[in-house]
Amino acid sequence: MQFPRGPVTNALVVINLVIALLLLVPRWWEYAVISGGLWPIRLSGDSSQFEAISFLVPTFLTPLTAAFLHGGLMHAILNMLMLLLIGKMVERVLGGGIYLFLYLVGAYAAAGTEWLAAVMQWPMSADMMAPAIGASGAISAIIGAYVLLFPNAQPKAWGPIPANIARPLHLTLAWVALNLALGFVGPGLGIGIAIWSHIGGFVAGLFLARPLLLWRYRKA
């Protein structure tokens, strides 16, 4: 089977890897994370801790810029491999423009969930002064769309809950359980995982997949 073309996926992968290569210079990476990382404290309207920084990305853009920053080249490569594996399939179904829209919405949904978790002090949430970076929240939205658009089995009802509701509910619970498990294991391996970003992005992908698919083929 021929691997589907995916120009938008390819572009996202190239952009992310080029940025990761440029930021191998430690001082550049530190400045990029401070300026463009997702800081929950900034999303709460407090940038007083950053007054000494000569340039800050506007707060409303940081969910986007943070999605193009990574904790190192290996972090970027792992994320981009995941995007390549599933992104082209979703892009083929939704089309490049809608696919890119989903990716960007996923980045903002992930950021909003990460901020809410920090404010509410949910289990394994980030500190208000800890930056969240990486494309995994946006990629989680693509994963959410993928598992809904390409089911490996016929969806089934849960008792009185119809199949069209039971399937996203089941997938959400499974994704939350997986990420909570990663949240427990990660610190022991020296890895910080923004599990709430993953959950927020995934849920956005789940619930936007079908409306976006219907929108693409609205004139069919």
Q: What is the N-to-C order of secondary-structure elements (H for helix, E for strand)?
A: HHHHHHHHH
Largest sheet: none
Radius of gyration: 18 Å
Task: Describe the global form.
Answer: globular
> What's the end-to-end separation, in Å?
27 Å
What is the arithmetic mean of pLDDT? Answer: 90
Number of DSSP helical runs: 9
- The amount of beta strand, in percent, is under 5%
Oligomer: single chain
**Low-confidence parts lasting 5 or more residues at pLDDT below 50?**
none
Determine the fraction of residues in helical runs and give it as a percent range.
Answer: 55-70%
> What class do helices, strands and sheet pairing give?
mainly alpha
Q: What attributes does this structure have?
A:
220 residues; mainly alpha; 9 helices; globular
